[in-house]
Amino acid sequence: MEQPSVSYKSFETREMSLRTLAVRLPKMEAVTAGAGLNGIAPYIGRLRPEIAQFLVNRYTSPGDVIADPFSGSGCIPLMAAVMGRHVIASDMSPYAVLLTRAKLFAPPTIDQAMRRLAKLSVGLAEHARRQDLRRIPQWVRSFFHAETLRHALTFRDACVNADEPFFLACLLGILHHQRPGFLSFPSGHLVPHLRDRAFPPALFPEMYAQREVVPRLQAKLQRIYRDAPRLDTDRRIMCVDARLFSAAEPVDAVITSPPYMNELDYIRDNRLRLWFIDRRIPSELEIPKRKPESYFRGLIDSVLDRLLRAVIPRGHIILVLGEVTRNRRRLDPARVTCDVVSQKYSAQLRLKEVWADRIPDVRPGRVLTQAKREHILVFEVRGLNGR
Predict the structure, then answer these.
(1) Residue 24 shares a structural domain with residue 98
(2) In the prediction, which pLDDT does 328 show?
(3) Which residues are within 8 A (CB) of 198 and not within 5 positions of it... i.e. 6 or more apart?
(4) What distance in Å separates the CA atoms of residue 246 and residue 203, rounded to the nearest whole number?
(5) Is residue 132 within 8 Å of residue 68, measured between CB atoms?
(6) What H or E segment, with its residue span, contains residue 319?
(7) Which among 276, 75, 278 is positioned nearest to 192, based on CA atoms?
(8) Is the domain of 233 the same as that of 88?
(9) Is residue 121 a part of any domain in this protein?
(10) What domain range is 350 assigned to?
(11) Do 244 and 372 share a domain, yes or no?
(12) Fewer Cβ in 10 A, N or C end of the chain?
């Protein structure tokens, strides 16, 4: 017997729209466990930890395997590990992979972290003198005092050579801001843009002086380890396109947040941190700007095809999807996703629940006109009998 289709306007009755189906997320208390690790470095579009905690708790059990093929800031993998789940995480962005690795494989105690920091810092001043800043792009040099940049680059090289993603992520977390605990000249924190007009060098000379790297990293560690959890479950992280995602073991649930039709410009917003990771901006991360809905449709189709090979029957595929407004036209990734499921995967997936949340647009340079809506689609993988 042919299975009924799941679509944007058919969940229990054909008259019900996605917005009608959506239930507002309950009020949640702020998550304290892992708060320092979650804030190790900024990431625009990061899922709120309390939402990740809610989804992990509601749809999985301790010991389950959770996959996140769009790990981004690593919030979902971290909360899953904190709550005793095994984790498989992946992303195609080296910054996202670095943050996820840093959060899932941080030194277990602050004492160990301080000892490893001290080891990485041996000979820092001597090696910093060998840094040839003429090889560094001018736009990068414009953010830092020359000596600060030499020391930051030397510490970056030490982290890469020693395969220490946690400390490299800590460095990226203090890379640019206007506060004294950061390394750059006065700059935005989420997005790197110099604020020399607001803080002219003639009036604020102390903000343009050399800044020591190691003492600021030590202070960063103190903030991180105020509430650092101990993680005891299996964790695996891959740098791979979600369309090529694969898991070596059965997955109980996928909880992930795909990109919002290129609404967030991850390369522009993270360009300085991306440059520090590889000493270049990875052009392969560019998402096509034309026909974003068509690109997103193909992305979701390919990713669902891969995920359905990994998730067990009665397991869940949970997608956190935000609305996008472009040229006064609302683009709805949740609707597109439901259309893809209706057309290709209705025999394998059942739309079980829909949650809604409202999120503000907090990016610099954007006028905050109204909050945006975020939908969380909870699909259940049908069993062999289609139920």
Answers:
(1) yes
(2) 61
(3) 186
(4) 55
(5) no
(6) strand 311-322
(7) 276
(8) yes
(9) yes
(10) 18-106+228-272+293-381
(11) yes
(12) N
Residue 197: partners with Cβ closer than 8 Å, 6 or more residues away:
none
Give the chain's domain count: 2
User: What is the spatial distance between Cα 355 and Cα 22, in angstroms, rounded to a whole number?
Assistant: 5
Residue 165, H or E segment: helix 165-173
Task: Report the pLDDT value the prediction gives residue 288, as an integer from 0 to 100.
Answer: 59
Strand, coil or helix: what is 10? Answer: strand
- pLDDT at position 26 is 83
What residues in the chain have per-residue pLDDT under 50?
A: 1-16, 363-371
Asked, for residue 350, whether it belongs to a domain, the answer is yes
Per-residue DSSP letter, 195: -
User: Which of 224, 246, 264 delimits the end of a domain?
Assistant: 224
Domain match, 101 and 116 both: no
Task: Provide the pLDDT for residue 368.
Answer: 38
In which region does residue 41 sit, left (phi positive, over 0), alpha (psi from -120 to 50) or beta (all else)?
beta
Q: How far apart are CA 192 and CA 65, in angstroms?
A: 36
Beta-bridged to residue 316, according to DSSP, are 253, 380
Same domain, 334 and 253: yes
Assess if residue 280 is contained within a domain.
no
Separation of alpha carbons 35 and 274, rounded Å? 23
Cα–Cα distance between 311 and 67 in angstroms, integer?
9
The single-letter code of the amino acid at 85 is R
Burial of residue 166 (number of CB atoms within 10 Å: 0-12, 13-18, 19+): buried
**Residue 321 region, left (φ>0) first, then alpha (ψ -120 to 50), else beta?**
beta
Residue 314 backbone dihedrals phi, psi, to 5 degrees:
70, 5
- 282 within 8 A of 92, measured Cβ to Cβ: no
Structure tokens belonging to residue 386: 């289609």
Q: State the pTM of this model.
A: 0.89
Instruction: Determine the Cα–Cα distance for residues 253 and 355; give it in Å rounded to an integer.
Output: 17
